[in-house]
Amino acid sequence: MFQTKPRTRTTLERFASPLQNHAWSNIFKEGRGQREAQRISREIDKGILESKKLLTKKDKAIKVLIMGQPESGKLAVLRNLLFALHPTYFHDEALRWKTIIQLNLIDSVKTLLSIVEDELEISGPCSRSPAGSTSTSLLDHYQHTRMRLLPLLSIETNLMRQLHPEHYDPSITPEICEQAGSRWKSVLKKVTLVQPAPPGSPQCRPVTSDKWGKDDPTLVLAAFKDDIISLWEDESIQGVLRRRGVRLEDSPGFFLDDTARIAAVDYEPTEEDIVRARSRTSCIEEHRLVQNGSEWCIYNVADGRGIRPHWASYLDDVQAIVFLAPLVFNDTFEGDKQLNQLQHSMSLWRKVCGNPLLAHATIILLFNKMDILKERLDAGFRVETYFPSYGRAPNDVENVMKYFRNKFLNDHYQLSTRRRPLYYHQTSVIDTEVTKFVMRAVRDGILQRHLESSRVLRPEQDMIGKDSVS
Ligand SMILES: Nc1nc2c(ncn2[C@@H]2O[C@H](COP(=O)(O)OP(=O)(O)OP(=O)(O)O)[C@@H](O)[C@H]2O)c(=O)[nH]1
Ligand SMILES: [Mg+2]
């Protein structure tokens, strides 16, 4: 016996039913009103269909989270990954990064001057500097240079005020920071306009804009290029840094060795400069792009007290996590001076491994800042001092790596709620050439897993639980 299938209500009917007794319902009873109502109904149905399509598309996007403690190299990895997926992704951002790099350079000059100032306060005008010259000559040099560099120092303040008018507080050391709602990207876009070189001219014109006026960082930096170089190369100042064990070279956004290039009027940032530039992220950034028909959705997940509560909404359907673990074993954590940076990283790693929402995600663990690890070990810092369980094992890269790798892999094994692929690589992500290969491997690995899970490809081998290293 046939049974009549109940007619599916149209969208309009579904929406209309609560309105039956309302005067509005009369509109559906009239001819014109009916046609109008049908048109609206069709539009609503079309809208629903389109949002469904969008949702399906979003579901199909390869969702990748880049995670790690502050300053672990997330942004540097993001830029490298985006370069691997889409080589021109940053082209129209290059000029904005130029200003950030210039600010990074000015910031290093400020740090240098404040170290010298501090040294002079402690040692007094008559003591000898380690380089053999008296501190009076250090004082003279410092005072002379500081006076000359004053205009340079003031453009940083002005620039920061322009970038963050809403948050500017002169009592706080300015730091460039990407923040939800921050205007800095649009401000930089307005002020960093390219002026094309006149036809036939072999030289680029300054990449600058009139909007800066006298504060144009390109022109101010060019004017002080030689002073900055002589300050950085000064033997007595280098002596102070050596004696204090300060290695500005290891600090984020260090460009003093490149002053001649960066302070030139025709400076344009290279890929490597963009990767090395320091700009703190204080929000969760989303980057979407399509590569060879696959849509990628990459999130740079900033870490910080105020941000962690917002993570939860990003953890659904994650296909891969790129986790940054910088092996800087002897630095304290900025947010908590009692905590070692690497211990902080390990505690974050444990949270990621044990999170049930991330149980299906492939993990790519990057032991980053290998260049700094090597430098620290060469300089004689002993791992045992900071991690007593390391004991008397040889204090070299190979053994130290093995020790930390085992710690991370062990946590992953103990805390993961199900078996899943884990790949690990040793990286110095500011080395763009080498990182390119790692990022291509990361890209291909994620894509392969994505195709397997969407059953487009059958896995060639069971990768579950295997580790890989490059
Ligand atoms: N020497 C060295 N520096 C690195 C490496 N990776 C990142 N850096 C530098 O460390 C600084 C911080 O890197 P970012 O990529 O901004 O780190 P982040 O994790 O995004 O930091 P937050 O935005 O504070 O969360 C930058 O100046 C990078 O150039 C590395 O492998 N070696
Ligand atoms: Mg960042």
UniProtKB/TrEMBL annotation:
GTP binds at residues 250-251, 368-371. Keywords: GTP-binding, Hydrolase, Magnesium, Metal-binding, Nucleotide-binding, Transducer. InterPro entries: Gprotein_alpha_su, GproteinA_insert, P-loop_NTPase. The lineage of its organism: Eukaryota, Fungi, Dikarya, Basidiomycota, Agaricomycotina. This is p-loop containing nucleoside triphosphate hydrolase protein. Gene3D superfamilies: GI Alpha 1, domain 2-like, P-loop containing nucleotide triphosphate hydrolases. One of its GO terms (cellular component) is cytoplasm. GO terms for molecular function: G protein-coupled receptor binding; G-protein beta/gamma-subunit complex binding; GTP binding; GTPase activity; metal ion binding. Mg(2+) binds at residue 281. Pfam families: G-alpha. GO terms for biological process: adenylate cyclase-modulating G protein-coupled receptor signaling pathway.
